[in-house]
Design the sequence.
């Protein structure tokens, strides 16, 4: 049975690094929105259309991803999945396609995220947005960590 891998965590938590490792290990299709978004629109975080564009990229990625399980290939969605309802929605979508879901929760403490963010912003890696620290702090307040009961219901791997 094919698996839909949900990469869960905030920016700088290691989602994309782990997603690339899984891609190499499993031969899975990895879909990382920032890579497509930056290729299409550049680093447009300050642009009023950024969120709309990012949502459109993720919707297009899901259209691609939804065709893959029928071919027996795992899919890695490197979306962040900050809300439990979103994770449950994608698990239901996977089940409708005959796939199972695995959550990869990158649980990184606040201070470590900020340290990694400062380093990332200095290095300005390709396919990564420059993110102000105050944005990350605001996102921390909105992020819904994965719970034990959620992992039991959906499944997890590290």
Sequence:
């Amino acid at each position: 049975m094919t698996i839909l891998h949900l990469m869960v965590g905030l920016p700088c938590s290691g989602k994309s690094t782990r997603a690339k490792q899984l891609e190499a290990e499993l031969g899975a299709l990895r879909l990382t929105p920032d890579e497509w978004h930056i290729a299409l629109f550049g680093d447009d975080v300050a642009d009023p259309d950024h969120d709309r564009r990012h949502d459109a990229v993720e919707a297009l990625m899901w259209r691609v991803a939804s065709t893959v399980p029928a071919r027996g290939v795992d899919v890695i969605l490197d979306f962040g999945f900050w809300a439990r309802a979103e994770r449950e929605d994608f698990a239901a979508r996977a089940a409708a396609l005959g796939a199972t879901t695995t959550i990869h929760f990158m649980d990184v403490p606040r201070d470590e995220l900020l340290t990694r963010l400062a380093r990332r912003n200095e290095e300005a890696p390709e396919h990564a947005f420059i993110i102000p620290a105050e944005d990350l702090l605001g996102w921390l307040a909105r992020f819904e960590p994965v719970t034990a009961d959620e992992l039991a219901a959906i499944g997890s791997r590290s």
Notes: The first strand starts at residue 3 and ends at 8. Helices lie at 15-26, 33-41, 50-65, 84-96, 110-123, 133-142, 148-154. The first helix runs from residue 15 to 26. The mean pLDDT is 93.
